[in-house]
Amino acid sequence: MPSWVQQGYDEYAKRLPRECELVLKEIAPGKRTKNSDVARIVKEEGERMIAAIPQGTHIVTLDIPSKPWSTPELAQAMQRWLEGRQHIIVQVVKNPLSTKGAL
Questions:
Q1: Cys bridge to 36: 4, 32, 47, 100, which one at CB 3.0-4.6 A?
Q2: What are the residues whose beta carbons fall under 8 Å from the beta carbon of 19, sequence distance 6 or more?
């Protein structure tokens, strides 16, 4: 994993309230060669990502072309989730191809 990912994770983790546990879980990308079936590899990567998420988890995907949330909007949503006793929130920073149509 690149060091910038760990640095970003560490910085983000410092900003979360105590009630929130942040877990960084790396999913290995599929091996690509010149003649790889990229569609199959991307589909398998997405399936591995989804399989790594515990059952019943509230999923928030971070995706560049989506509607952006401000920090206050995200904080309000997290407060609602915590009040609703949804203890596990997974934020998936995804390869835009890997989970296309899967989440």
A1: 32
A2: 82
